[in-house]
Structures are given as structure tokens and as C-alpha cells.
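REQUEST FORM: STRUCTURE PREDICTION
Request ID: SP-0412
Submitted by: Lab K.M.
Chain count: 1
Length (residues): 205
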Amino acid sequence: MRQVREARIPAALVHAQALPEDLIEVGYVAAAYGVRGWIKVQPHAQDAGALLHARRWWLLQPEAPASRPVAQSAARESEPLCLKIAQSREHSGTVVAQASGVADRNLAEALKGRRVWIRREDFPAPEENEFYWVDLIGCAVSNEQGEALGEVAGLIDNGAHQILQVAYALPDGKPGERLIPFVDAYLRHVDIDGRRIVVDWGLDY
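STATUS: Completed
RESULT:
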């Protein structure tokens, strides 16, 4: 009877301890692609430009936070991996990539399910008047009258445009939320370096 040997992560790919502080999760490994070690990644965003631009990807297990190193007692199979990307391209809504050291389908299959992170500094520069969502999170939001509206906690894409989820405290101390369309009709100024956004929006909206 034939036996199927489980593929193991090559030791050369394991980079266990220090992780860059600016890692951003951009997708996950959905499957192996082909027989030569390519992997298929499902991006979190419709625009996969960041994935295609970065030459190094960090792969973490779904339960492993990127904010702290893996415990020494963890098995090497669960440690973070740093992949050097030789080539990548878009393919039917996904990104397929070839990584150095991943030479066959079995090894690619062993990476399935891992989350893909890249460094913020490896993102391509945005076009004029375009912004990365990750840069908007945490920005203070105020209106043209100088009234504080809250802080960007997240963004929603409703298909037509993006919407800022602005968190603020209600008078009773409970959390509140304002949903402000991120469109020219309401947007007045975005200062990424200064971490602030000015909008045409009232406190009572």
C-alpha cells in the first residue's frame, strides 16, 4: 500500500523570532498552484498592487499574532516564515507567486491557510489623492468648524464608494459611530503625516 508522506516546512524558510513592526496583513494562502511550488494567495483587497510589489512576504499561522514573536516552545512548523518572492502575477482574482525554496507542490500545500503579511514600506506609492486604508485608521476626524468628530476605526466598501467608520464617545460614555462617505462631496482635507482628516459633516448628522 502506498504511503503519502506529509510535507514539512524546510528549515531554511523558517524565520522565527523578530518580526518587522510595520507588517500589514494583505491576504492568505488559498492553495498550491501547479506542480512547481507556486502558491495561490487570496488578497483581502480588490487591488493586489501591494502583494505584487513586495519581494518579501511573511507567512503566519492564523492564530499567530504578528505583534509578538512566537514562543520558543512552539513547533517549528508554526513559526513565521519569510518568503523571498521570485515572481508573482494576478490570476482570476487571486495572486499566484513563486517563492525561493518552495520547489514542489507538496511544500506549497504545506503553506495553505497561512496569513500573508508584508511591510508597509513595501507598498507601492499611491497615486495623487489616493490613500491606503491602513494609513487612514487612527486618524482624527474633525469638521470645518474645528469640531472633533472622532477617530477612524475602520472603513467599509459598499461597492459604490468607501465609508469611514468614525468612533467617538457619547455623552454617557458609551461608544458611538459616525459613518461618513469618503467622497469629494464631504472630504475637505487628508493629512496622513499629521494623522487628521477634515470633512464637511455636522456633529448632529
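NOTES: The chain is about 5% helix and 40% strand.
Reviewed by: T.R.
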